[in-house]
């Protein structure tokens, strides 16, 4: 798998898992706003993650902690939820996304 394919796969997994999980947790009435917000926020954070991890070699845990905090701030502002709820949503969604990414990577390795 090329680097570009890995980046695309990681982004797709991130979007699908975080969208699914956040919508399931929040069960918003205005789900279209939530989908748009989640997509926009992830389109902002994901390229930064790729850059910091793959080009600047920052520590993985530091980058992920920054993403969780950044996304929590944006979820709070964009969706008008409490700081605690925003942090919980961001933390759970990102941990689940990381887990699904690891599963997908192992699956690809197994299949090749």
Major sheet summary line: none
Tell me the fraction of residues in β-strands, as a range.
under 5%
User: Using only CA atoms, what is the Rg?
Assistant: 14 Å
Q: How helical, in percent, are the residues?
A: over 70%
First CA to last CA: what distance?
9 Å
Task: Find the structural class using helix and strand composition.
Answer: mainly alpha
Defining traits:
112 residues; mainly alpha
In short:
With 112 residues, the chain is mainly α.
Q: Can you tell me about this structure?
A:
The N and C termini lie close together (9 Å). This protein is mostly helical and 112 residues long. Helix 1 packs across helix 4, helix 2 (31-55) packs antiparallel against helix 3 and helix 3 crosses helix 4. The chain has four helices and no strands. The protein has helices at residues 3-26, 31-55, 60-79, 83-111.
């Amino acid at each position: 798998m090329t680097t570009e394919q890995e980046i695309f796969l990681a982004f797709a997994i991130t979007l699908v898992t975080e969208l699914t999980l956040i919508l399931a947790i929040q069960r918003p009435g205005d789900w279209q706003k939530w989908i748009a917000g989640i997509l926009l926020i992830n389109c902002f954070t994901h390229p930064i993650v790729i850059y910091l991890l793959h080009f600047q070699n920052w520590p993985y845990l530091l980058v992920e902690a920054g993403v969780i905090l950044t996304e929590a701030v944006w979820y709070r502002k964009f969706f008008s939820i409490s700081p605690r709820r925003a942090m919980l949503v961001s933390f759970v969604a990102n941990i689940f996304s990381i887990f699904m990414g690891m599963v997908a990577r192992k699956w690809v390795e197994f299949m090749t």
